[in-house]
Amino acid sequence: MKPGIFVSREIFGEVIGFLEQHFEVASNQDDILYEGPLLAEKLAGKDGALILASDRIDAAIVAACPQLKAVCNIGVGYNNIDVAACTRAGILVTNTPEVLNDTTADMAFALVLAAGRQIARGDRHVRQGQWKRWRFMEWLGPDVHHATLGILGMGRIGQAVARRAAGFDMQILYHNRKRLPAEIERACAARHVSKDELLREADYLVLMLPYSTENHHCIGAAELAAMKPTAHLINIARGGIVDDAALVDCLQKGGIAGAAVDVFENEPALHPGFLALDNVVLTPHIGGASRDTRLKMARLAAENLVAALGGKTPPNLLNPDALSRKA
Q1: N or C: which end of the chain has fewer CB within 10 A?
Q2: Which candidate, 262, 306, 318, 299, places its Cα nearest to that of 74?
Q3: For the chain, which domains are there?
Q4: From CA 114, how far away is CA 36, in angstroms rounded?
């Protein structure tokens, strides 16, 4: 008898077909969001789960699903999963790194351009019938070329953003907990600086940090106050890295020139203050949302699940300690 799995949200039919070659698949192609006890009910008796960032696998769900052996996340971030609880229970946890690096970097740079050149505001202006005549002294946004790009969190996606910025002749600064090797810095034309200098010097500050307790509200009122009044903040990393209430307050008061935000605290219930602001670009967590990339992510998560339930070590295993705890 094939192992049973639950696919928590709607995904590509071809990936469902691949999974059905290996498992008895219960699939939520109606895309209903199951939470808490309802999610536990769907996972009851299942050997594996293919989930998305909207699905929270906490200690209570782990305890309620003793048969569960693998939880495979479609996404790079995995703060929706209590990895420690899974490890104690011998549940293998995987993610899908690398496949969305370039797509997310494309989106990050799109947000840099949209914020600096007032693209979303201009689009609204035209659609609302407010454009009556062309004026030389209107819509004077800052240049992107030759500006200073700051990257906070210089992993593979941050490095991909830096490579794109080189085409705009930008000065590229970055801050990481650990400085990159010199050869990577040269390839990215990037210079390592302190966080304080990054905040002080960046014309466009792009956030590329993973979410963690340590990084919660890494950008708050004090950090925003340290930025140039002409600067723009770009958050395409994770909700919770920025104190959204502080950002709204800063934008309202003109503390920085603008922002572009793809991820939010408590999304999709974003801070209502964002909606009244004309100096912020808002997108619905679409950093990795190209068809090719999403298909690769789903396929990689499925391959992780096949390996995990087939007695092999999944290629993107996050908690190797769980291998020794498997029943």
Answers
A1: N
A2: 299
A3: 4-99+291-325 (3.40.50.720), 101-282 (3.40.50.720)
A4: 38
Burial profile 58-91: b = 16 or more Cβ within 10 angstroms, e = fewer? beebbebbeebbbbbbbbbbbbbbbbebbbebbb
Q: Which residue has 């995995």 as its token pair?
A: 78
Angle between helices 291-309 and 13-20 (to 10 degrees): 10
**DSSP SS3 for 303:** helix
DSSP three-state, residue 160: helix
Active site residue ranges? 238, 267, 285
Q: Which two tokens stand for residue 135?
A: 């004026």
- Global confidence as pTM: 0.92
Q: Closest Cα to residue 259, out of 276, 274, 239, 238?
A: 274
DSSP letter at 146?
T
Position 145: which residue type? Answer: H
Residue 200, amino acid: R
13's tokens: 């039919």
What single-letter DSSP state applies at residue 272? G
Which tens digit of pLDDT belongs to each residue from 274-326? 999 999 999 999 999 999 999 999 999 999 999 999 999 999 999 999 998 76
Angle between helices 101-116 and 119-127 in degrees, nearest 10:
60
Query: Residue 184 has which token pair?
Result: 């990577």
